[in-house]
Amino acid sequence: MTSKILLVTGDAAESLEVFYPYQRLREEGYQVDIAAPTRKRLQFVVHDFVEGFDTYTEKPGYTWPADLAFAEVDPADYVALVIPGGRAPEYLRNDPDVRRIAQHFFAGDKPVAQICHGPLITAAAGVLDGRRSSAYPALAPDIRAAGAEFVDGAAVVDGVVVSARAWPDHPAWLRAFVEVLRKHAPVT
Predict the structure, then answer these.
(1) What's the pLDDT tens digit per position in 51-72?
(2) Is 59 exposed, middle or buried (0-12, 13-18, 19+ CB in 10 A)?
(3) Cβ–Cβ contacts within 10 Å for residue 64, how many?
(4) b or e along 39-50 (b: 16 or more beta carbons within 10 Å of the residue's beta carbon)?
């Protein structure tokens, strides 16, 4: 039986932050299941950094089907969790099932990778208190309000939790997360 990783996301997730870990972790030999509020075709977005803009811009991205709904997820079936960013975490954090899922992984000390706005979910789940976490820099106040230390870094490792700022951090973020997986949840 292949080790499974759960990726939680929804509409308006950042395309690169979904597909890069999805493909990279499959390359490592994991089965990656995408969970969303419902089973449907999701509309992702592309966030880019344009000179002269105070923040990122957003354009339509790829579409992709969700494998299962959050309510269907038994987190015990998964060895690790990935939480991409984009705007999706802003509304996903309000879903009791996505908070239940995040709480399971933190309570079980299972590997978690979060990037960009993804830590909004773990903050809402109440599992960041006392931790160190990166995120999109504009979220520093949110990370601190959740009781965590905000670290402006490309691959912040706190035990089995690996966080990053945004898609430009992918190489360092996934390199660190794969190291955590190989140690704590190797492919079986």
Answers:
(1) 999 988 999 999 999 999 999 9
(2) exposed
(3) 18
(4) eeebebbbbeee
Say which residues have a Cβ less than 8 Å from residue 10's Cβ, sequence separation at least 6.
36, 37, 42, 88, 91, 92
DSSP state of 148: P
Cα separation, 126 vs 138, whole angstroms: 20
pLDDT tens profile 2-33? 899 999 999 999 999 999 999 999 999 999 99
Instruction: Give SS3 for 9.
Output: coil
Catalytic residue among 47, 104, 117, 170: 117
Q: Determine the 3-state secondary structure of 177 from DSSP.
A: helix
**Burial bucket for residue 134 (CB in 10 Å: 0-12, 13-18, 19+):** buried
Instruction: Identify residue 162 by its one-letter amino acid code.
Output: V
Contact predicate 67/42, CB 8 Å: no
Confidence of residue 1 (pLDDT cuts 50, 70, 90): low
Residue 184 bears catalytic tag: no
